[in-house]
Amino acid sequence: MSLFSDVPQAPPVAVFKLTADFREDSHPQKVNLGVGAYRTDDCQPWVLPVVKKVERLIVEDESLNHEYLPILGLPEFRSAASKVALGDDSPAIKENRVGGVQALGGTGALRVGAEFLRRWYNGVNNTATPVYVSAPTWENHNGVFTDAGFKDIRPYHYWDAAKRGLDLAGFLDDLEKAPEYSVFVLHACAHNPTGTDPTQEEWKQIAEVMKRRKLFVFFDSAYQGFASGSLEKDAWAIRFFVSEGFELFVAQSFSKNFGLYNERVGNLTVVAKDNENLTRILSQMEKIVRTTWSNPPSQGARIVSKTLNSAELFDEWYGNVKTMADRVLLMRDQLKAKLQALGTPGTWDHITQQIGMFSFTGLTPTQVEYMIKEKHVYLMASGRINMCGLTTKNIDYVAQSIHEAVTKVQ
Amino acid sequence: MSLFSEVPQAAPVAVFKLTQDFNNDQFPNKVNLGAGAYRTDEGQPWVLPVVKKVEKIIVHDDRLNHEYLPILGLPEFRSSASKIALGDESPAIQENRVGAVQCLGGTGALKIGAEFLRRFYNGNNNTKTPVYVSAPTWENHNAIFSDAGFQDVRPYKYWDAEKRGLDFPGFLGDLERCPEHSIFVLHACAHNPTGRDPTQEQWKQIAEVMMRRKLFVFFDSAYQGFASGSLEKDAWTLRYFVSLGFEMFCAQSFSKNFGLYNERVGNLTIVARDADNLKRVLSQMEKIVRTTWSNPPSQGARIVAITLTSPELFSEWKDNVKTMANRVLLMRSQLKAKLQALGTPGTWDHITDQIGMFSFTGLNPKQVEYLVKEKHIYLMASGRINMCGLTTKNIDYVAESIHEAVTKVQ
């Protein structure tokens, strides 16, 4: 008899199961359009050249050691990361009311932010405060806020499947109807999984309602720079909300834009009313961090910090980011062109209108199943594809497969 | 008005506040005997030579990339880490009933283990299961289990201040009287903060009661190799409990024995009844990890895995560990000898009887205050000193200062 006899088997995380199935598939033309990581045109992972360079600098630097970082992380990383999000000239930064908590990727930043809000927002330990996440959203958002103790996670209207675009009316309506002080998780850019972002005008409307109804702004920013190739463009929404005077959180990930997935580089940027509030908030963040990971890992933060704080390396990084963003844009163009050339039923404009790593193809679950089982093209049941999985070598096969799925399967 | 006006300022973590005060102190002969990190005889942090070597190997290995690790971590790290704890010949490992979760240092391993136990041990979500931590213990144990949801964290008798030793009858008494199925956090070796471990005979008695009363064994192993210089010796207790057939957890830290403090290298070793139970347990561990940090950082785990799985590097590492352990042993002998030579009142055998990084000097709070304020020697209010802070250059000053404190202050 085991102490754990009654522990149930947990289902695997869908996106990792997909990749596991892909790995086991021996079909020569298999394509993985599942998990969100950049691939080169040879379908290989890519260590950014600037990262390789900085890793060498770090290993040669005899002045560095492995002493514990402060609980909140490497100071030069935290400030550089927040600057990337809010802008070098950010008034909020100049007013000393912006702080950062170095966290374990975007996940860690969301988790620490969620834990803080559950303890201290809208009362003390108010687990009943509703938390709204987009329908659909990254599959882990729900789990992160639930495990932080929130009992009421709700969807807000976002994706309009019929028109394959943003359901702005539904979104605004949910904002108007949400209880005051509800927490809203917003995707700063390159919405995962739909790739569909509000326009600037739409963001302005969203902000107006959120301010009026006292809703809490929690941005998830995992693709800054990666989405459009421009750091400023991809941070427009965040900076607009800050300029509107919101106190807000931004969970930043450097997994994608630095290709540092496995070093877990993230930052929770906190924008407070003033320095005094910020100080108290950060002191409580320390308590949360201390019982979770004590203090964060150094390697990834050092790489990012060195890069962002050196004019030359920063430029090189920006070039690397553009390389990735441009390849994605090229694949978008080509996929749409090929589907149009094939005369695949439906409209395919959304492929180039959507932004970032992912595209919500609009394929139905049975069509997705066809793609996987018959064509060995792996994508999420939602119809989400990772554009990075496309290459000049496989794009014809994928376009052809989509064509077959749409014409043969309903 | 801020959303966060009511958020109170949290008190700083005592040991970090101590180091901060030390850093701000201008006194030329100041000594930091606070935070637990190894120092050379020059009072400097030490990057282990084998670590430096392996970091270079990693940076020059072009086959490596930064793709996400599996949720449970780098497989070769997990298995080699568990082997270090349980032994190469461990029957439990051969029986396929040992698994592991790569975690963020010892803290992360404790956290994941605690979260799992709260969800699945002794019923579902049984937050009332008592968790016992030694009196005294590492300051973070209590909070980790509280934040994981346990509502009843209690002390078990451990340190006998009068006899400056283990309160063994008290410890056994608590084991006999506690509710069945209570969780006990045991220090595998080099008890923090007292430096006092049970003898092998005492551990046998402890194990007998725990088995009979169905108490859950959760080891905290942060000093394997570092304590005595021998990996086997420092793991005797763990291995003994495993040999008795306990299902148990062991939170391992590689911060100290690899000097990799800031890369957050830890491992939660799980010993289950059989492979089937292990599998279900690990699947639930994945769920917990996914909403906390998603997947762990690579750098530190790679360094440890490469070292442990290469016979040559493994030998070199063991030597580096012996270097550290021996310096600590030397400082222990010298401090005791100097106090005895000074004729400092009291007995000082405990300094060499105790093991590991720390020594519970027996100094009272007033004497500690004297040392900090008058002599600029920084130690914890509990009287705990980090032996690593002693060097051949400062040991006379420290011995004399202790002598003054004991003779002048009551």
UniProtKB/TrEMBL annotation, chain A:
It is found in: Cytoplasm. It is an enzyme of class 2 (transferase). The keyword Cytoplasm applies. It catalyses: L-cysteine + 2-oxoglutarate = 2-oxo-3-sulfanylpropanoate + L-glutamate; L-aspartate + 2-oxoglutarate = oxaloacetate + L-glutamate; 3-sulfino-L-alanine + 2-oxoglutarate = 3-sulfinopyruvate + L-glutamate; (2S)-2-aminobutanoate + 2-oxoglutarate = 2-oxobutanoate + L-glutamate. GO terms for biological process: aspartate biosynthetic process. It holds the Pfam family Aminotran_1_2. The keyword Amino-acid biosynthesis applies. Its EC number is 2.6.1.1. It comes from the Eukaryota. Its main location: cytoplasm. One of its GO terms (molecular function) is L-aspartate:2-oxoglutarate aminotransferase activity. Gene3D superfamilies: Aspartate Aminotransferase, domain 1, Type I PLP-dependent aspartate aminotransferase-like (Major domain). Keywords: Amino-acid biosynthesis, Aminotransferase, Cytoplasm, Pyridoxal phosphate, Transferase. Its cofactor is pyridoxal 5'-phosphate. Residues 29-402 form the Aminotransferase class I/classII large domain. GO terms for cellular component: cytosol. SUPFAM superfamilies: PLP-dependent transferases. Homodimer. In eukaryotes there are cytoplasmic, mitochondrial and chloroplastic isozymes. Belongs to the class-I pyridoxal-phosphate-dependent aminotransferase family. This is Aspartate aminotransferase. It comes from Amphilophus citrinellus. The lineage of its organism: Eukaryota, Metazoa, Chordata, Craniata, Vertebrata.
UniProtKB/TrEMBL annotation, chain B:
It is found in: Cytoplasm. It catalyses: 3-sulfino-L-alanine + 2-oxoglutarate = 3-sulfinopyruvate + L-glutamate; (2S)-2-aminobutanoate + 2-oxoglutarate = 2-oxobutanoate + L-glutamate; L-aspartate + 2-oxoglutarate = oxaloacetate + L-glutamate; L-cysteine + 2-oxoglutarate = 2-oxo-3-sulfanylpropanoate + L-glutamate. Its EC number is 2.6.1.1. One of its GO terms (cellular component) is cytosol. In eukaryotes there are cytoplasmic, mitochondrial and chloroplastic isozymes. One of its GO terms (molecular function) is pyridoxal phosphate binding. Its main location: cytoplasm. Homodimer. It is an enzyme of class 2 (transferase). One of its GO terms (biological process) is aspartate biosynthetic process. Belongs to the class-I pyridoxal-phosphate-dependent aminotransferase family. Its cofactor is pyridoxal 5'-phosphate. This is Aspartate aminotransferase. It comes from the Eukaryota. Keywords: Amino-acid biosynthesis, Aminotransferase, Cytoplasm, Pyridoxal phosphate, Transferase. Residues 29-402 form the Aminotransferase class I/classII large domain.
